[in-house]
Fold:
Amino acid sequence: MKLKWFSPKGSEDDDHQSETVIEEKEVLLDSEELNGNKKGFFFRLKERLAKTRETLITRLDRLVLGKKEIDEDLLEELEEILITSDLGVMTTQALIDSVQQKVKRKELDNPERLKEFLQQEIHRFLDVPGKLIDFSQKPFIILVIGVNGVGKTTTIGKLAGRFQREGKKVLMVAGDTFRAAAGEQLEIWAERSGAEIIRQKEVSDPSAVVFDAVKAAKAREMDIVLIDTAGRLHTRVNLMEELKKIRRVIQKEIPDGPHKTLLILDATMGQNAISQARIFHEAMEINGIILTKLDGTAKGGIIVGICNELKIPIEYIGIGEKADDLQPFNPDEFVRALF
Structure:
């Protein structure tokens, strides 16, 4: 199998095997990405959560307006608001139970304080501790998985740019051998970010591509390896087994790898995203989630259900197409922007 290794201009490759084709690329950086959006991420997040805020928060405000007490009728309406805001049945019930307990203990009797209490509870659900990237583990292997169309390849490109700007040596691996455009897309992101990329020259076994890439990353002392994979339905057993095979070949070279298995979820999928996450988690032991397309949906409440039901941390959220529209998830910021 022939692999193409694309290296930043001016790098040396004396120890690379003869079958590897080395090509130069320019590092193209968007000045807006480097200088930062003047509005700041928090303000953009607040703007782009407008649909979710209308679905959840505006309806909460209407619910408590003019109410004198928190009674059964109010709780029934609250339950409907939470479920239709895509928090999910389990998370909705947990919130309703918490409210009822507070009311019973007379710690919550004013409907106007209901919103504040829900804000605190939602923040508690979102605050799931995650595994930090340990740069002393070289290379730190990140396996990126998900169904078709959620933005895996684009997300990998954005992450590569972020890590490169932090001064890390990043290798992207085009492990999606079924979609030719995926490799081409990664090459464009490699040019923009200055990251290196390995992709297959022709259609081949993705696990073989990943195995060779991990070996090469060790030899070249890369800091981070970002592995793209083909989109797959979470209900297809054979495709899930293929992911397990990729994990096994990584472990042949790096026994404790992959260090992170990140699942990309599309926020517009609503409750189906939780079903996807649950099945992927059972198969691959996910330890982080990236939620994309939060800007175009009223279903942003799904983020609360994911954290509460699966106890998997949200690592990053995406609120647009630009590189700096993907940012680390901050529960404090998210709750403030939502409420």
